[in-house]
């Protein structure tokens, strides 16, 4: 069987030598032929697009360059559950199996296949729990008086400058250019000023 070794460490102060030695022994015992090796130094929390070796491995998998990917541990493929599920799904879609030495998992077996689906379930659970925490956090913040959304550029000083420039006869586009703000912001300030004057007169 043709296999590929995937090795990863997080920092330049670490080495993949131990991973390579143990995985090479595993391949020898199983009569697996190592046809490619991917070795990267990058955080496992980063996505595929930020990991050149992982991207190269997935591309070679799609070309059926090997039949199985051998890793020291599943977290070598990704420490973030979402990323791990994405990588495993791409391998599964191309018919490539995964063998993880540390966990003793082989997705070509029934138990290994079950593990794959369990990973997906936990990923969905983690995602739902994160959403619930976000909603709860927003509710707490709102209860404490927090305000969300884009911060308004209409500070008190800006409003005063706009009013002053308008009184001098400058057009809204000129004011926007001079204060480095959008014309819409100037319109908004002027509209609020008119509404404010109307309210004052009514009172």
Helix content: 40-55%
Which descriptor suits the 3D outline? elongated
Number of helices: 7
The beta-strand count equals 5
Q: What order do the strands of the largest sheet run in, or round the barrel if closed?
A: 2-1-3-4-5
Task: Give a quick set of tags describing it.
single chain, 203 residues, alpha/beta, 5-stranded mixed sheet, 13% strand, disordered C terminus
Polypeptide structure, described:
The protein is of the alpha/beta class and 203 residues long. It contains seven helices and five strands; from the N terminus they run βαβαβαββαααα. The protein has helices spanning 17-29, 52-62, 81-93, 110-143, 156-167, 172-179, 183-202; strands at residues 2-9, 33-41, 68-71, 97-100, 105-106. It has a five-stranded mixed beta sheet, with helices on both faces. Strand 3 (68-71), helix 3 and strand 4 (97-100) form a beta-alpha-beta unit. Helix 3 (81-93) packs antiparallel against helix 4 (110-143). It is elongated and about 85 Å long. The model is unreliable at 197-203 (pLDDT under 50).
In short:
The protein is of the alpha/beta class. The protein has helices at 17-29, 52-62, 81-93, 110-143, 156-167, 172-179, 183-202, and strands at residues 2-9, 33-41, 68-71, 97-100, 105-106.
């Amino acid at each position: 069987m043709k296999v590929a070794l995937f090795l990863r460490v997080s920092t330049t102060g670490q080495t993949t030598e131990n991973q390579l030695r143990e995985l090479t022994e595993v391949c020898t015992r199983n009569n697996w032929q190592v046809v490619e090796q991917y070795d990267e130094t990058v955080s496992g929390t980063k996505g595929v697009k930020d990991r050149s070796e992982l991207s190269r491995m997935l591309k070679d998998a799609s070309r059926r360059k090997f039949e199985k990917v051998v890793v020291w541990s599943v977290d070598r493929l990704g420490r973030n559950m979402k990323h791990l599920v994405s990588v495993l799904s791409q391998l599964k879609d191309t018919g490539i199996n995964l063998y993880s030495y540390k966990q003793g998992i082989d997705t070509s077996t029934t138990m290994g296949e079950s593990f794959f689906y369990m990973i997906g379930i936990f990923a969905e659970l983690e995602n739902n729990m994160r959403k619930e925490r976000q909603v709860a956090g927003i509710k707490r913040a709102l209860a404490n008086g927090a305000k969300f959304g884009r911060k308004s550029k209409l500070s008190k000083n800006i409003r005063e400058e706009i009013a002053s420039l308008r009184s001098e006869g400058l057009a809204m586009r000129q004011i926007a250019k001079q204060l480095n703000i959008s014309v819409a912001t100037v319109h908004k300030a002027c509209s609020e000023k008119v509404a404010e004057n109307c309210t004052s007169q009514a009172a």
